[in-house]
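Hi R.,

Here's the chain you asked about this morning:
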Amino acid sequence: MLEKSHKHITCKNCLSRKDSLLCSMTGEDLEKVDSSKSCSYFKKGQPLFIEGGLPRGVFCINEGKVKVYSRGEEGKEQIIHVATSGEIVGFRAMFSGEPYSVAANTLEESNICFISKDDFLDLVDTNPNLRNGILRELSKELADRASFIKNMAQKSVRERLAAALLILDDIYGEDFINLSREDLANFVGTATETLIRLLKDFKDDGFVTTHVRKIEVLDKEGLIRLAGV
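And here is the predicted structure, written out as tokens:
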């Protein structure tokens, strides 16, 4: 369980910074981030920002997981990314100057640090390593988004579920996948009822097992073959 009254975490002592865009920062730059950021505890399901809102800054996940999603015309969510410890979310909209085209909510109790738009843009202007890291991240996102759209268009729901479980297994690491069936369905891009039926088939086929709502991947190679990746 996380501390309910979140204390300020220094970047120097942050265990997640090694996986962050801020990993190369040292000295004065790191102290500047520390002095300008604020750290907060978020309950499960709390929003970081909403679709159509104006970007005020960026959110760096110290601990926890966040879903980034958009809503279709009928209001159904489509989860396009699950961000985890070390990731920074919300910086893309700042560079476009447009409102958020997606929303972000916590998937579990999380510790998250916030850096204002002006402070973050100043860091980008003065720190080449950060600027280059953001360019690499944006380029990777374009490739990932193209692959995501291709998978959605060309793969069956069964194949998409296999691919989604592989992605989530990598995100959750040593922990079991811990998503609600509705969120998992929204990540795969299918109805919750269809997801539940397919997940039962996957259990029967020995690909996964479940621990209440948590999912343990048993046959990763089998999922890779099924997903065609």
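One quick note: The CA atoms of residues 14 and 93 lie 25 Å apart.

Cheers,
M.
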